[in-house]
Amino acid sequence: MRDAAMAIGEALSNNERLRRLVLDSGLPWPVALTIFNRGLGSAAISVSHWRGLLDEPGSERFRALDDRLLQHAQQQFAKIGVRI
Predict the structure, then answer these.
(1) pLDDT tens across 34-63, in order?
(2) Domain of life here (predicted)?
(3) Under DSSP, is residue 62 helix (H, G, I), strand (E, B) or coil?
(4) Residue % of the chain over a pLDDT of 70
(5) What gap in Å lies between CA 31 and CA 61, rounded to an integer?
(6) How many other C-beta atoms lie within 10 A of the C-beta of residue 22?
(7) Is residue 50 a contact partner of residue 40, using CB atoms and an 8 Å limit?
């Protein structure tokens, strides 16, 4: 049902796009975090922040992913052949 809604133009949030990248990669989330953090240097995110990005909206831990970090994630995951 969710795929059908997306097919008719439902936009994914930045966090949903990140979750899709991680799921489509098939990697454990700690490995996906390492890939995400590549190139961020001192701006690399922590494990707790990562969990918040992957959590569902409305949860206590949820953190919104900004456009800049989504673009970074897409670039890093594209290097390993994962695109959304």
Answers:
(1) 999 999 999 999 999 999 999 999 999 999
(2) Bacteria
(3) coil
(4) 88
(5) 20
(6) 23
(7) no
